[in-house]
């Protein structure tokens, strides 16, 4: 049997190994929470809330196939938001925790009747405590601004 050329061995190795792990990894629930709800420092703080919501909902991939009806962005550091599940929050019920401090938040709601792109949002900026669901000591779901 003749020796296999180097390029053939590399091709065989790639087929046997399959896709690289980084390309097949899915977003964790905590990563999805961070992408959808944490924006610190606040992107384009000079934008009024409507324009901010339209920009952020699209850039954070919440308008790709359908318009997400509502979403809240928390303008606190990822570490401060994560701390709600431990020393920075108070247990509420089940796996829900309320933040001990207020955060600046932008609440976005779809305007108009259609939930099909292109999406249009209205926004409201406020300072509020937040309630999140925690799993393994990190937030995985935004429940409410309180």
From TrEMBL:
Q: What is its main location?
A: secreted
Cellular localisation:
Secreted
Q: Which InterPro entries match?
A: RNaseA, RNaseA-like_dom_sf, RNaseA_AS, RNaseA_domain
Ribonuclease A-domain domain: from which residue to which, for each copy? 26-146
Keywords on record: Disulfide bond, Endonuclease, Hydrolase, Nuclease, Secreted, Signal
**May I ask which residue range the UniProt record assigns to the signal sequence?**
1-24
Q: Does the keyword rRNA-binding apply?
A: no
Similarity comment: Belongs to the pancreatic ribonuclease family.
What is the protein name given in its UniProt record?
Ribonuclease-like
Q: Source gene?
A: LOC107115762
